[in-house]
Amino acid sequence: MNPANVFSVVGAIAALQWFLLIFLPHWKITQLLVRYRVIPMVLSAIYCIYIIGFFSVQGAGFGSIAEVRTLFNNDQLLLAGWVHYLAFDLLIGFYILQSAQSKAISHILVIPCLILTFMFGPCGYLLYQVIRKIKTSI
């Protein structure tokens, strides 16, 4: 499968999981997927396959911005980087959902955090931490 096709598949899988987190957080299937971290594990396996298979790009690495740029000029490694974001952002989304449910924070307040985490990762996490701090200090 070429990187563009894998990109579409992993994006659809991640988007479906985010839909469940945002709109069906208490549904049995959503809870099962969150508890066992099924989708992040699938994404992690895909990430490992691409990293192991394609990491040997001349001049690429993590030692400088030029090396990182060289890394992401390769479509397979760019895809690996994207899958990395998808997997870790989902794990943060799982944390937010489970933390909010355990602290009885209204899901209405959590929805913007999840959407922000889906789109801009750390921004959603930061918003959730602010909401959690405010709700637990009241």
UniProtKB/TrEMBL annotation:
Membrane-spanning segments: 6-24, 36-57, 77-97, 109-128
Q: Which UniProt keywords apply?
A: Membrane, Transmembrane, Transmembrane helix
Q: Which InterPro entries match?
A: ABA4-like (IPR025461)
One Pfam family it belongs to = ABA4-like
Q: What is this protein called?
A: DUF4281 domain-containing protein
Origin organism is Pedobacter cryoconitis
> What broad taxonomic lineage does this protein's source fall under?
Bacteria, Pseudomonadati, Bacteroidota, Sphingobacteriia, Sphingobacteriales
